[in-house]
Prior knowledge:
Blueprint: H1 2-16, E1 21-23, H2 25-35, H3 37-57, E2 63-72, E3 77-78, E4 84-87, E5 104-107, E6 110-113, E7 135-138, E8 144-145, E9 149-162, H4 166-233, H5 238-273, E10 281-283, H6 303-309, H7 311-332, E11 337-348, E12 360-370, H8 378-445, H9 450-484
Parallel strand pairs: 1-10
Antiparallel strand pairs: 2-9, 3-8, 4-7, 5-6, 9-11, 11-12
Helix pairs in contact: 1-2, 2-4, 3-4, 4-5, 4-7, 4-9, 7-8, 8-9
Amino acid sequence: MKRFLLLLVAILFVQGGKAEVVLDLDSCRTLAIKNNKGLQIARGKVEAATYQKKAAFTNYLPELSAKGAYLRNQKNLSLLDGDKYLPIMNSVGSIDATVINNKWTNLLGRPVPLDADGVPFNPATNPEKIQWKNYAYLPKESFDVDMRNLYVGIVTLTQPVYMGGKIAAYNKIAGYAKELAETQEETGRQELLLETDEAYWQVVSLTNKQKLATSYVELLKKLDSDVQQMIGEGVATAADGLSVRVKLNEAEMTLGKVEDGVSLSRMALCQLCGLPVETPVRLADEQLSSISLTAPEGRTADLSQALEMRPELKSLSLATKIYKQKERVALAEHLPNVALMANYLTSNPSAYNGIEQKFGGQFNVGVVVSVPLFHFGEGIYQRKAARIETRNAELQLAEAREKVGLQISQAVFKYNEAFKNLRRAEKNLEKADENLRYANLGFEEGVIAPSGVLEAHTAWLSAHGDQIDAQIEVRLCEVYLNKAVGMMNE
C-alpha cells in the first residue's frame, strides 16, 4: 500500500506538474524496475526464449508439408519418332507360314524359313528377315502426350523416430536458454537496483552536505559581522577581516557547487526512476540523523550460499550445460537418422490409367534411413571443437567463482571497516563540536584570535563532512555486500 501511494503521488505530479514527490528507497527501486527500458528488453528476451523452447518441442511431433509445382514445357512428349507398322501374328510369339511371305525349306526334318537370298535363318535371332503378310498401322499422332502444361503436387507426413539424440539435445538447449534469459534479466535487475541505490544515497549525501555548507556559510557570516565590529572598535585588524571574508567567499563557492551537484544528482535519480528530470523530488532519508545504523559484530557471509545466489554464476553454469549439449548435437550429426514417411503424390497429366489430361495420384508409406559413412574426419573435428568450448566454459565458471569469492571477502571487510570509520568520525565530530564551542567562547571573550576561530570552523566542517561520508559509506557498503552475495532484491 505504501508503494502504491508513492507511485500514485508520482503519477499525480506528472499530471499536475507542480507537486513535490516524496520518495523512499523502496519506491525508487519500484519505479526504476517498472520503467527501465533495459529490463523491458530482458523480459522480452525471456518471453522469446519461452516460445523458442516450445518450438523446439515440436520437433518430436510429426511434420506435415505440401508442395506444388507448375511447369510450362516447350514441347509435347512423343513415344514414336514417326508412323509405325506392327506385324500381325496368330498369337503372341507364334510364327508360321500363314503369317509370313518367306519361303520355307526342310532342314533336318523341321520347316525353316528362307530369307530373300534363299538362305535359311532363325526368326528368333534374325527377326529383320521376316517378311510379314499383314501390318497394323500405328500413327505417330496417337502416341503424342500433351506435356506442355504439367502440374505436380505432393503432401508429405514425416515422423522422426531416431535422430541420434539431436532433438533431445536441442530441447535441453532451449530449456537452458530460457533459464539463461531469466538469469540475465535478474542480473540486469540487480545492476539496476545497485545503480538506483547509489544514486539515491548520492542525493542524500549531497543534500546533507548542502545543509552543512549552508550552516557553515551562516557561521562565517556571523563571524564576519563580529570581526567587522571588532575592527571598528580597534581590537581586530583589517587582515583578520580579510581572512574571514576569503573563507566566506570560499564557503559560498563551495555551497554553489554542492547545490549544482544536488540538482544534477536529483536529475540522475529521476531518470533512473522514469520520472521527468525536472521533477522536484524529496527523499525520505534526507535526514541522516533519523537513519538507524546498528554496527554488526563482525558480519560474515556464507560463501557457498552466495555462490548459489549470484545470477552471473548461474548464467555461466547454464552456458556450460548448453555447450555440453552442443557436444551431443555434434555427435548426432554423424549418427544414423530414422524417420517414418507417408506421401500422397498427384500429377496432371497422369499415367495411372493410360496417359490422361486430368489429376491422378497415389499414396505411399515407407521408412527413411540416413547413415553418414565418410567425410574425411569432419565429425571428429567438430566433436573436438565442441569439447574445447565446453572446457573453456567450465574454466570461465571456475575463474568467476574465485573472483566472486574474493569480491565477497572484500565486501565483508569493507562493510565492517565502514562501521569502524563511522565510530571514529562520530568521536571526531564530538571533539570538533566541543572545540568550536570553546573557540567561539574564547573569541567572544577576546582571548582567541579570528584565525583560531577559523581553524575551529574548518575542523568542524571537516568533521561533519566526514560523518556524512561515513554514514553514506556504511549504506553503500551494505548495498555492495548484498550485491556481492546476490541478495540485492532484499
